[in-house]
Design brief:
The chain has 2 domains: 280 residues, no CATH class; 105 residues, abc type-2 transporter like fold, CATH 3.40.1710.10. 64% of the residues lie in helices and 4% in strands. It is built from 18 helices and 4 strands. Strands 2-1-3-4 form a 4-stranded mixed β-sheet. Helix 4 packs across helix 7, helix 8 runs parallel beside helix 13 and helix 13 runs parallel beside helix 17. The relative contact order is 0.11.
Length: 446
């Protein structure tokens, strides 16, 4: 019996390279391309690279975004509501609540310990209808409905809002009957009505998907810049120095700028792969929410109506982008922003790694730098309008602002140009700084 040698993680890469040589193909005699091929094969020979760069974002992102929504949605996770109808005349209201509110209901007697049940997690909400409820309404007076809930549990607060909506509608119906009996209209007790209109740069109504897109995509662009291919960048500089392989590479008869260019080409390819997987994971996350969680539960009524007109499910993914725009063009723009972010972040990582003697020390340097840059980037989805302009001039944050501008107002050429130019300027500056540091003997060999 013939025994097979276990396959190693690099066997597939080696066989692929050898197969190209057997077919008569070889790399052009360009040092930067040889270095890029070396870095890519070393990175891809470890299966964990594919898992971390492609599979994990596409699996974990939809779970991280969709799972909290599934827990909060009353359709997918109905709240447990206990009703204590002390007044028998309040049964019509009880029937209305149980029929219109999604939830698991139990009817309790007046001696029920509501506080203990909520604190122990037996129920999410307790609705108490006090004695004399129906009598007060019949006399034309005001009756009370008491809610007991846990303010630290979002599910408890959500359940109270749902029940309160039904009770408010029931109250308005009683008010309408009283006004009709007095030959009065509802306008008599509601002299001012609030009417709201969305004001958007494109003039189109914001959908639920576009709101989530504005929240998620800019942050993902910034996260990609900070975490993207940084582990590969650290290994290409500090890792090689720790393994004492960078000396042999730098003493070869090749210009150092060619070596650095080859490493950046490899990082660009890896960053592009991670950017595509990140964008796909965000789109997939919005699709999971659109399918699993009705959007009208999560957004204002105007956006819910727009989403209902557009349709739910995966077909509503196109509503991430403003009406009248080309999703393909915007996706390409966001892809370019992700690539800019990844390259800028990698340049920063190379700068920090050039000073480090080991991989661990490089992580500490880079962690301090990225920690400072991540703060304004996280504020992009929440910043007031007056701060959006200055934020376009901050490193890394400018790229996140570019992604936001592409979704919110793709027709604003001035904003897109400002964010794009600032991002390119920072990229060039960091690339030049990293090239200068990489070429210093004292930094590389000391």
């Amino acid at each position: 019996m013939r025994l097979r040698r276990p396959r190693s993680g690099s066997e597939g890469v080696v066989r692929f390279t050898r197969g190209l040589a057997d077919l008569g193909y070889s790399l052009p005699n360009r040092p930067w391309l040889v270095v890029a091929w070396k870095e890519l094969t070393e990175s891809l020979r470890d299966r964990r690279t594919i898992i971390n760069a492609v599979l994990l974002p596409m699996i974990l992102m939809p779970i991280a975004v969709g799972l909290p929504m599934l827990f909060l949605s009353p359709k997918t996770s109905p709240p447990r509501i206990a009703i204590v109808p002390t007044d028998p005349g309040a049964l019509p209201l009880v029937e209305r609540i149980t029929s219109e509110v999604p939830g698991n209901f139990t009817i309790k007697t007046p001696g029920f310990n509501a506080t203990d049940a909520i604190l122990k997690g037996l129920v999410d909400l307790v609705v108490v209808i006090p004695e004399g409820f129906s009598a007060n309404i019949s006399r034309g007076g005001s009756a009370r409905v008491v809610y007991l809930y846990d303010p630290y549990q979002l599910k408890s607060s959500t359940a109270m809002g749902l029940v309160q909506g039904v009770v408010d509608e029931y109250s308005r119906e009683i008010l309408s009957e009283r006004l009709r009996s007095l030959n009065l209209s509802e306008e008599f007790v509601e002299p001012i009505r609030a009417v709201s209109y969305q004001v958007t740069a494109t003039g189109a109504a914001a959908t639920a998907e576009s709101m989530f897109g504005v929240m998620l995509l800019p942050m993902m662009v910034g996260v990609l810049a900070i975490t993207g291919a940084s582990s590969f960048a650290l290994d290409m500089i500090a890792g090689e120095r720790e393994r004492r392989t960078i000396e042999a590479l730098l003493t070869a008869p090749v210009r150092r700028i060619s070596i650095l260019a080859g490493k950046y080409v490899a990082l660009t390819v890896l960053a592009a792969v991670m950017g595509v997987s990140t964008m796909a994971s965000v789109v997939l996350s919005v699709g999971v929410m659109a399918v699993a969680v009705p959007m009208e539960e999560l957004v204002p009524p105007q956006a819910a109506q727009a989403a209902e007109r557009a349709g739910t499910g995966l077909a509503s993914l196109s509503k991430i982008f403003p009406q009248g725009t080309s999703p393909t063009v915007i996706l390409l723009g966001i892809g370019a922003a992700m690539l800019l972010a990844a390259l800028t972040g990698n340049a920063i990582v190379v700068m920090g790694a050039s000073f480090a003697k080991s991989f661990k020390e490089a992580q500490q340097y880079v962690g301090a730098i990225t920690g400072i840059m991540v703060l304004p980037m996280i504020a992009v989805p929440y910043a007031p309008a007056r701060l959006l302009g200055p934020m376009r001039f901050l490193p890394i944050t400018s790229v996140a602002m570019l992604a936001r501008d592409l979704i919110v107002n793709p027709g604003d050429v001035a904003a897109l140009t400002t964010s794009g130019l600032a991002s390119v300027v920072y990229l060039v500056a960091f690339l030049l700084a990293s090239a200068k540091l990489f070429g210093r003997e004292s930094v590389v060999f000391d």
